[in-house]
Specification:
Layout lengths: L1 H12 L1 E5 L1 H10 L2 H22 L4 E9 L12 E15 L4 E15 L4 E17 L7 H68 L5 H35 L6 E5 L4 H16 L11 H19 L6 E14 L1 E2 L4 E3 L2 H10 L3 E10 L5 H68 L5 H35 L11
Parallel strand pairs: 1-6, 5-9
Antiparallel strand pairs: 2-3, 3-4, 4-5, 5-7, 7-10, 8-9
Amino acid sequence: MKLISMVLFMAFNTYALEITEESLLAQAKNNSPSLDEIESKMLKAQADYAQVMDSLGTSVYTGYNHTSTQERAVNPFFPIYSPINQYKAGIVKPTKYGLKAEAAVSVDQRSGSSEQQVFEDIHTTIYGLTLSMDLWKDLFGKVTRKKIENAKVAYKSAQLQKEVEQKTYSVAVRRIYWALVANNEKKKISEALLKASIAQTNDAKKRLKANISDAGEVARYEAQVAQRKGSLLLLRYEKEALLKQLKDLVPSLNGKKITLGGYNLDETLGEVLSCAALIQTKKEAPMEFTKYDEVANLLKEVQRNQTAIDSTYDDIDISLSTTFKQTGLGSDQEGSDRFEGSFQKSLDDISDNDRSGFEAALLVTVPLGKKASNTEDVIKTYNKKRLAAQIENTQNNISTTHQQISESIKILGDVIGVQKVNSQQLKIRVADMRKKYNQARIQVNDLIQDQDALFSSDLSIVDTKLNVLSTLLDYFAVFTETPCSFNRI
């Protein structure tokens, strides 16, 4: 019963899936950790930008504090206040210009007594407006604005990088698909030749029985059969390796037996060569076909902003804080020894009397020693080299990809033409050698040598076609917007 359950489980989870290039890409885009990782990089940049902007958002705060005590006064004439209730609420608004404004109201409510006086529900209400600004490092928000701009540019860059990396991922999937097609084409050639080799071996065995040939001839044909079977086994191994790569890229294919749907390699090759012809008309790298130049420009902007930010790391910091406030006290004397108040009385005191006040504070922070200076040097060098390398790699990728790949495709196209001529001539020669062999004019080794040469030539044509496809796909990984049919997917 357990064995039956395992068989049913395997049958349910393993089934054949026929794929075409279009259906494979659709499957890849629906469920792929690689695409999720690409998306996460963009979301990280988006979150970083949002956090920078959130830090400049308006915020509201409230607070409450309660104190009660049974302590005894050191001096009996000093009152002990209990309970004390303190309330505070405010609104804070930072700006990108190094200025922060805060409006707040606080209420202190307390009761207490001494030996001579009683205080009941005394209220102190304070309205305050505080303005704080940086007078040196972030004067007029020179650092804050650079950080905002950097986060914004980094987000734009991440959006472009997402599009580019998604294309790169699609190219990687397509490359494996066409490698599977090439593997299948070579398998067809190998199977046909194996079938012919087996027929030749059987014919040689009949000739041996008729004493027309010898055992060495049969052995040579059997060796050829073994060689063909070995080639097929290697192709099976190659296919399994390719399928593993594909399933690593598209995990949703795990547990499925992959089979190839319909395709037309020669027709596709025609599209590729047509696309290559379009590319070769562009003497300079066609920037309209790529987004890498935009990425490079954004990286340059990031570099400029980052240099300005890093240069302030070891600066002194001077900040000024000023507070304007109105204070109202709700405490009316009731008799000789009793004072009573209320919240309304404290408000009335503010409106009826000038209780204004002003506070100012200046804070100067000066880094001491060389540690901060050394850290700044390390940070500046790191960011300079990191961004310079990214910019240079991006720019080099654009120029070298266009110059080298377009020429490579042309060369490979010429190679295919030469290889086809080679195979055609070898087919003529093999047919001729077959006649001579049947007439006992040549040895079996001569015939098999030419058959192997034809076999190798046919396989080389398939490999070269795959190289042409892969080379153009490498081009699409950089020039993602190339307007040709092979780049339609």
